[in-house]
C-alpha cells in the first residue's frame, strides 16, 4: 500500500463540495488514514510550496492557499499516488479528462479544487509537513 497527501483547496471548501470530493475518494477505494480541516498561514503555504519559489505563480498560489480553509488528508491505496492523480485530472481543469475532480470542480490552474503528491519522495515530505509524527 502506498500513501499520498491530498488537499481539498480553498476554492472547493468555499463551494461547499468537501462531501462530494470525500465521497469520490471513498468510491475510488482509498482509505483516509488521517484528515483535518486547517487554515494555512501564509508562511505555512510558502513553506509547503517552497519548490516553486522562483516561479511567477508562487506568491499568488501561497496567497490563494492561505485564503480559506483546506482539508488535509493522507490517503492510502495500492498505487495511491498515481490513482489520486488520475482521479484529480490534469492541473489545468480545461485539459483534465471528463469525470475528473479538477474538470468537474476546478476553475483555473491555481483554483483547481485539489492537490496531490506527484512522487513517492514528494508524498513522504508533504505528509510529514502537515502530519508530524507523534
Brief write-up:
The chain is 41% helix and 19% strand. The radius of gyration is 14 Å and the shape is globular.
Task: Return the CATH class.
Answer: Alpha Beta
Helix/sheet category:
alpha+beta
Helix content: 40-55%
How many discrete domains?
A: 1
Mean pLDDT: 96
C-alpha geometry: globular
* CATH topology term: Alpha-Beta Plaits
Uncertain segments of ≥5 residues (pLDDT<50)?
A: none
Instruction: Say how many strands there are.
Output: 4
The order of strands across the largest sheet is: 2-3-1-4
What is the distance, rounded to the nearest whole angstrom, between the alpha carbons of the first and last residues?
22 Å
Biggest pleated sheet: 4 strands, antiparallel
Structural Rg: 14 Å
Treating each run of at least 4 consecutive H or I residues as one helix, how many helices?
A: 7
CATH architecture: 2-Layer Sandwich
SSE arrangement, N to C: EHHEHHEHHEH
Strand content: 15-25%
Query: Going by CATH, what is the homologous superfamily?
Result: Nucleoside diphosphate kinase-like domain
Amino acid at each position: 500500500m502506498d500513501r499520498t497527501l491530498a488537499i481539498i483547496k480553498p476554492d472547493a471548501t468555499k463551494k461547499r463540495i468537501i462531501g462530494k470530493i470525500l465521497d469520490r475518494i471513498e468510491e475510488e477505494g482509498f482509505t483516509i488514514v488521517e484528515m483535518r480541516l486547517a487554515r494555512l498561514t501564509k508562511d505555512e503555504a510558502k513553506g509547503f510550496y517552497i519548490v516553486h519559489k522562483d516561479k511567477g505563480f508562487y506568491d499568488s498560489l501561497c496567497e490563494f492557499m492561505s485564503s480559506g480553509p483546506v482539508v488535509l488528508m493522507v490517503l492510502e491505496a495500492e498505487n495511491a499516488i498515481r490513482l489520486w492523480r488520475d482521479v484529480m485530472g490534469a492541473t489545468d481543469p480545461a485539459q483534465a479528462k471528463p469525470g475528473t475532480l479538477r474538470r468537474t470542480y476546478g476553475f483555473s490552474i491555481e483554483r483547481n479544487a485539489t492537490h496531490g503528491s506527484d512522487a513517492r519522495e514528494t508524498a513522504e515530505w508533504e505528509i510529514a509537513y502537515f502530519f508530524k509524527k507523534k
